[in-house]
Amino acid sequence: VPMVAPGNVQVHVINSTLAKVNWDTVPLKTVRGHLQGYKVYYWKVQSLSRRSRRHVEKKILTFRGNKTFGMLPGLEPYSSYKLNVRVVNGKGEGPASPDKVFKTPEGVPSSPSFLKITNPTLDSLTLEWGSPTHPNGVLTSYILKFQP
């Protein structure tokens, strides 16, 4: 299997759901075989809005050939992630690079979880709503739009 981990791993967060990861290629003599590509392991550590930790599910993206970057789509907004990179040959994976931590920025919240109309009269009514299932950040206000 390969002997060394990719170096100089850097993460550039593009938006609340997408990041780009860069790394330096390993010297070909340390691959000890045919270079197949690089694997990026990444996982969500925690949501920054809920502070609750959950079961960690590692995701893996494979980038074929002698690439030095890859895109990580489908990230959750306002979350903390870790990742590492490994080189792959025909026999297996080399050692992991040191873990890199990165955070995604706030994203647009989902809709309120419910909306109820109560106490309707001829000239007024009362509205009740629930917090969004996915706040994707710090909620600062709600905007009510209506038309007669």
TrEMBL record:
This is NRCAM protein. SUPFAM superfamilies: Fibronectin type III (SSF49265). Transmembrane segments: none annotated. Keywords: Disulfide bond, Immunoglobulin domain, Repeat. The keyword Amino-acid biosynthesis does not apply. PANTHER family: CTX-RELATED TYPE I TRANSMEMBRANE PROTEIN, NEURAL CELL ADHESION MOLECULE L1-LIKE PROTEIN. It comes from the Eukaryota. Residues 5-107, 111-148 form the Fibronectin type-III domain. The keyword Repeat applies. GO terms for cellular component: neuron projection.
